[in-house]
Amino acid sequence: MPEYRSELLNVLDKRHYTHQITDAERLDFLASQNVISGYVGFDPTAPSLHIGSLVQIMLLRRLQQTGHKPIVVMGGGTGKVGDPSGRDESRQLLTDEVIATNIASQRPVFERLLTFGDGPTDAVMVNNAEWLSGLGYLDLLREVGPHFTINRMLTFESVKSRLDREQPLTFLEFNYMILQAYDFRELAERYGCRLQMGGSDQWGNIVNGIELTRRTGGPELYGYTTPLLTTADGKKMGKTASGAVWLNEDLLPAYDFWQYWRNVDDRDVGRFLRLFTDIDLAEIERLEKLEGGEINDAKIALANAVTALVRGEDAAANAESTARETFAGGAGGDLPVLNVGDGMPLPAALTAIGFTASNKEAKRKIAEGAVKLDDEALSDPGMVLTVDEGAQRRLSLGRKKHGIVTR
Length: 407
Hints:
Blueprint: H1 7-14, E1 20-21, H2 24-33, E2 37-42, H3 54-65, E3 69-74, H4 96-113, E4 124-127, H5 129-132, H6 137-144, H7 150-153, H8 157-164, H9 171-174, H10 176-191, E5 193-199, H11 203-215, E6 222-226, E7 239-240, E8 243-244, H12 254-262, H13 269-276, H14 281-288, H15 295-311, H16 313-331, E9 337-339, E10 344-345, H17 346-352, H18 359-367, E11 371-373, E12 376-377, E13 384-385, E14 392-397, E15 401-406
Parallel strand pairs: 2-3, 2-5, 3-4, 5-6, 9-15
Antiparallel strand pairs: 1-6, 7-8, 10-13, 11-12, 11-14, 14-15
């Protein structure tokens, strides 16, 4: 692991954020000598971001914690086009009103994790519609178009993957990379921004912005990306069998948010503690060495810390208290406990735990929407119920029958 002179790159490296840096030596020197402004762009196509975006918000938090200035760029302009990265199909086009509503809905999460204001290291939130919406199409083509070649644009993964799968890529989406490159140059001019950060799928877009700025006489800019985040079992962060893990309370209750982190795979605990919490690294090293049933202490620490950051201290405390009361009841005999081993068909589990008299009755209850797992309704009678090693989940039938499933 390299030793950097700047606190910024040292923190990012030791907490395992680093994937690629365009010029690590120069960025390290700049960050050690000056306050630098860095930005991450966010997509306003939904009322809430999900936890797949949380690592990028944490990047901005680390930037601010180490004495630099975060810029949150809401894609009010690019959101009208849609980023093709990681998608198999075109996005639905949104109106200005919907985009504005979504930005307002997403803002409170940023306000919990960042300090906004007018100071030299205070965060600012900007909307790229400010400069993109006023651009004349012909003027943009004449100014920016000559610096992009179709040959190179076709090599970017976001384009290649869609073409390889013979999925349509509209000309509107094809222009996204040009607009994002323009964003970087515009932010450099307006806010003195020198750094763009993002996930590894944004590397090409970031490099485009650096190149465009260099070719049009702008300052030297830098790019930083994080690895594509997946769980230990290879799944993409932010998605579960029951849907997205939303950051906003109105789309996902705090208890369910807390439970997501409480039930992560044992192999993910140390990595997630580094990425998503402010817990001291020495304490993280202690927690990730716990084995057997004790690893649950580390998972609870993770769930409490992330929930406190995103939803507030009270939400974290209430979620832990609810979980303790629920699962303590199972341990004390008030709630039945079922070990599902490597997996058990849901109807069989309902019968085995004593909720139904037969698998036929169980399937009927599932069809009626009466069965829930951690308060999420289950509708597939063919579902195989699985639980991570050492985890506990609450299985419910109606309002009165509750039990604990373990492995």
